[in-house]
Amino acid sequence: MTEADNREDSALSTDPEDLEPVRRIPDIISLVKDSYAELRPAERRVADVVLDDVKYAVDASNAAIAERAGVSEPTVTRFCRAIGCEGVRDFKLKLAQSLVVGALYLAKSPTVSNDNGMPFWNAVFGEARRALQEAERQLDPGELQKAAELIAKARQVTVFGLGGSSSALAQETQYRLFRYGITVSAQCDPYLMRMTASTLKPGDLVIAISATGRTREVIEAVELAKHYRANAIAVTAPDTDLARACDVRLTVAVPEYPDTLKPTASRFAFLAAIDLLAVASAYKLDGSARETVRRIKYNAQIHRTGKEMEPLGD
């Protein structure tokens, strides 16, 4: 047995309980906000300085923070200990770690600059339009045709998506495809994704959706499906691990708008990709797809009166 084999056996035989847990970095900014009401008045002035400009608080000396807050240096130390830190040094280390999400998430809301009093109005509509334009410009018609062919001939289709937007998009893909008579299901739980991938066979198809293309659980589920010789389509960002793991890639990159309160606009681009994918698949199926849609419309119409050109569902 080689040394590499010994190392592998040792790794495989490791008891999960012996593994060190991942060290969690405390969210010190939340601790400051949650402890604010319990602080002494002088300590609250220190908290105000910290929350008003976190980067300044990380870089400034103890004396500078005290001067800006109008308190003594020992008060700054007492503030740090009051929120659970060992001292100023420990506080600053944790505060610096809190900036990993970027100062953008600590910024205040923009001032009102729209006639209707809502500064986000133009951003929401404008970013939605821009996302659709980017989707139209970046999506590859050739890849779309390949994807439609895979869906049309698939024995069954399963859609993977994890997290808020991608889970909703996975469900939306299921709703788009089943009405054409396609056997399709959506999985948004990482364990169910792995379990489902383990059941797939040649002729089955996975559609994997991820805005970043870096979600490890989705990538691993796709790789597992590929191991069992299923095909895979990615709806994701270009040049990502997920895109490289799949046979067909529908990729689009939409830069995020610098307002953390506004929902991501990339989902509009992915919705466009899903609609294109569904319609292209329906055109491949043609007669059978039209008949399935007709059945659905017929039974919906007799259940609920309405007009011919109303949405197929509700």
UniProtKB/TrEMBL annotation:
Name the UniProt record assigns to this protein: RpiR family transcriptional regulator
Keywords for this protein: DNA-binding, Transcription, Transcription regulation
GO molecular function, one term: DNA-binding transcription factor activity
Source superkingdom: Bacteria
Keyword Transcription regulation part of the UniProt annotation: yes
InterPro entries cross-referenced by the UniProt entry: Homeodomain-like_sf (IPR009057), HTH_RpiR (IPR000281), RpiR-like (IPR047640), RpiR-like_SIS (IPR035472), SIS_dom (IPR001347), SIS_dom_sf (IPR046348), WH-like_DNA-bd_sf (IPR036388)
Keyword Transcription regulation: yes
Record-linked Pfam families: HTH_6, SIS
GO biological process: carbohydrate derivative metabolic process
PANTHER family: GLUCOKINASE, HTH-TYPE TRANSCRIPTIONAL REGULATOR HEXR-RELATED
